[in-house]
């Protein structure tokens, strides 16, 4: 149940981000959320980011690119949980037969 809710929230956030809907982003992001740009060695607050998004949307230039993410922590944890469940079920099957 919790994974499904998390996926729904993630989908809402992703849609809001790619459409430039900073008002929805503000509803789903923590007020202290920051974006870290490691290569540029800078940190951007969510309010600064919302202003930049609003400006880009207003001027018709909001065209975010999909980030190059090595892996998603959520997906890794979900896979680990599934593997643990599968291993537990295999143990139950072996001991029950």
Sheet-strand content, in percent, reads 5-15%
The domain tally reads 2
Overall 3D form:
elongated
CA(first)-CA(last) distance: 31 Å
Number of strand elements? 2
Order of helices and strands: HHEEHH
Rg: 19 Å
Give helix % range.
55-70%
Total helices: the number is 4
| Biggest sheet: strand arrangement | 1-2
Largest sheet: 2 strands, antiparallel
Estimated structural class: mainly alpha
What integer is the average pLDDT? 80
Note poorly predicted spans. 93-97
Provide an overview of this structure.
The chain is mainly alpha-helical and 97 residues long. Residues 93-97 have low confidence and may be disordered. It is built from four helices and two strands. The protein folds into two domains: 1-66, no CATH class; 67-97.
Summarize the structure.
This protein is mainly alpha-helical and 97 residues long.
Structure keywords:
about 100 residues; mainly alpha; elongated; 4 helices
Helix and strand layout, with pairings?
Blueprint: H1 2-19, H2 22-28, E1 34-37, E2 42-45, H3 46-58, H4 73-96
Antiparallel strand pairs: 1-2
Helix pairs in contact: 1-2, 2-3
